[in-house]
């Protein structure tokens, strides 16, 4: 890829926060290191407190040393990168205060201005208004919004409406960092560049799909935030539904942002609503109790610091989702995500239907299914489970299940897989919206989740317990067993 000639002013609101210091500056450094940040670009950190550029740059340098591998921190590039950083103190809610920022911004009308809101969504409207009123925007400005945008359809509409007063949809980049993961984008290549999969990707050939996003971490220090959200809002409404869309969508006519997003919206609209009755058969809501992870005892959710004994918040969700369209009628999409699971693992498993007629030894019939595993993290790659003849004169026609494996970090020339934020920031700089979530996607996703969470709101029972370090409540396994299926790790 060539060095972009578009130079930008990249303005990060909330520049002292965890996201900015842990991810954004590190990602921008990596872009610079890869030669993908134009040398005239500037990065302006914005926060409320008074500080000078020199001490802010020191803070950024310390963060880079912490979050970037030592062999990737090249002194010359680091010095060049730090030189691009400036600091500006702004009181986010006071228009007058934005004059400080205006004075720093490059005054050319064409130069791109990227305003990244790494702040709570409750002030997105206020920042948008003040940027515009103070004259900080030009014809080439855009805004980047972090999730969560609201906690339901209504509150997300409020935030989106406020931002839309000042920026139109082509200027708004809503982040779902899962879309920046290399393997997630590879799903598009895998599905639409390979005729082999293109022809098989439907209810005639696929029996069911599993999407698992499991994390080892618990809530550690985030109890207050997390308890208001829960796993449904934190992970399902965004990351899991995005993965579902990319797995299930029809081929877009081309790779343009709107073509891809139109297809994703169609999937969201076709999702079968979860009714109250279906909550017992199609949904499992869980909460971790104390347990053991990697040999160490860990506390339960209700024993974490700051826990409220009345909480009913879930840390685990499993859902049997169904898509009411021609391609997917009758194919369950099992979604599962949880905290304090045995491993950090994000993967999509596509189970193909068995042969209509089985001519091998009946005792081997259970083997006879192909399975495509798309591993998003860790060890990004794909594997295709196929059946072979067991080698050897004495094996007759015995079958053996084996995997064709492609490990991306081993197969690519560059062993380093870029962080999702590097990809997303690069796309913003290049003005490409295909990896960002359009407003109607957010709305349809909330609509589906709100309906389900509405049933929970009237449920007085706490979520089902599961021991930290396990794969979730027993009911999650039973949900699949009733359909004659099982989660990937049980097979
Ligand atoms: C975030 C959630 O969006 O995604 C976190 O708010 C979660 O709770 C994180 O830990 C997981 O992201 P990743 O990239 O580590 O799988």
UniProtKB/TrEMBL annotation:
Keyword annotations: Carbohydrate metabolism, Glucose metabolism, NADP, Oxidoreductase
HAMAP family xrefs: G6PD (MF_00966)
Swiss-Prot/TrEMBL catalytic activity: D-glucose 6-phosphate + NADP(+) = 6-phospho-D-glucono-1,5-lactone + NADPH + H(+)
One GO BP: glucose metabolic process
Domain Glucose-6-phosphate dehydrogenase C-terminal: 189-488
Gene name in the database record: zwf
Species of the source: Amphritea atlantica
Source species taxonomy: Bacteria, Pseudomonadati, Pseudomonadota, Gammaproteobacteria, Oceanospirillales
Protein name: Glucose-6-phosphate 1-dehydrogenase
Residues that bind NADP(+): 48, 147
């Amino acid at each position: 890829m060539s060095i972009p000639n578009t130079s930008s002013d990249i303005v990060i609101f909330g520049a002292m926060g965890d996201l900015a210091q842990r991810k954004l500056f590190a990602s921008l450094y990596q872009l610079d290191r890869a030669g993908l940040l134009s040398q005239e670009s500037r990065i302006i950190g914005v926060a409320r407190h008074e500080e000078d550029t020199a001490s802010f740059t020191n803070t950024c340098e310390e963060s880079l040393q912490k979050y970037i591998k030592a062999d990737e921190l090249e002194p010359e590039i680091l010095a060049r990168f730090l030189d691009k950083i400036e600091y500006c103190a702004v009181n986010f809610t006071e228009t007058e205060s934005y004059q400080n920022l205006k004075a720093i911004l490059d005054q050319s009308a064409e130069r791109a201005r990227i305003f990244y809101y790494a702040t709570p969504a409750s002030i997105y409207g206020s920042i948008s208004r003040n940027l515009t009123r103070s004259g900080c925007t030009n014809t080439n400005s855009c805004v980047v919004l972090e999730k969560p945008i609201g906690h339901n359809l209504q509150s997300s509409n409020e935030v989106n409406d406020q931002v839309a007063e000042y920026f139109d949809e082509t200027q708004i980049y809503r982040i779902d960092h899962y879309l920046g993961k290399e393997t997630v984008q590879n799903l598009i290549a895998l599905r639409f560049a390979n005729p082999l999969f293109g022809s098989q990707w439907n209810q005639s050939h696929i029996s069911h799909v599993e999407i698992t996003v499991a994390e080892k971490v618990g809530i550690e220090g985030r109890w207050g935030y997390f308890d208001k959200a829960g796993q449904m809002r934190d992970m399902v409404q965004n990351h899991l539904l995005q993965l579902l869309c990319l797995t299930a969508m029809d081929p877009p006519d081309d790779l343009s942002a709107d073509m891809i997003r139109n297809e994703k919206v169609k999937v969201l609209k076709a999702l079968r609503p979860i009714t109250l009755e279906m909550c017992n058969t199609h949904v499992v809501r869980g909460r971790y109790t104390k347990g053991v992870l990697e040999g160490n005892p860990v506390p339960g959710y209700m024993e974490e610091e700051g826990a409220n004994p009345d909480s009913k918040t879930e840390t685990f969700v499993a859902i049997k989702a169904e898509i009411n369209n021609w391609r997917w009628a009758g194919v369950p999409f099992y979604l599962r995500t949880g905290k304090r699971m045995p491993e950090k693992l994000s993967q999509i498993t596509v189970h193909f239907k068995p042969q209509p007629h089985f001519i091998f030894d009946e005792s081997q019939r259970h083997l006879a299914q192909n399975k495509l595993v798309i591993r998003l993290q860790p060890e990004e790659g794909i594997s295709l489970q196929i059946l072979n003849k067991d080698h050897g004169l004495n094996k007759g026609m015995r079958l053996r299940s084996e995997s064709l494996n492609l490990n991306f970090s081993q197969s690519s020339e560059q062993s380093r897989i870029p962080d999702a934020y590097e990809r997303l920031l690069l796309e913003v700089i290049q003005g490409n919206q295909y990896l960002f979530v359009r407003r109607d996607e957010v709305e349809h996703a909330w609509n589906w989740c709100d309906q389900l969470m509405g049933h929970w709101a009237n449920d007085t029972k706490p979520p089902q317990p599961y021991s930290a370090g396990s794969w979730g409540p027993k009911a999650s396994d039973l949900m699949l067993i009733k359909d004659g299926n099982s989660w990937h790790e049980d097979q």
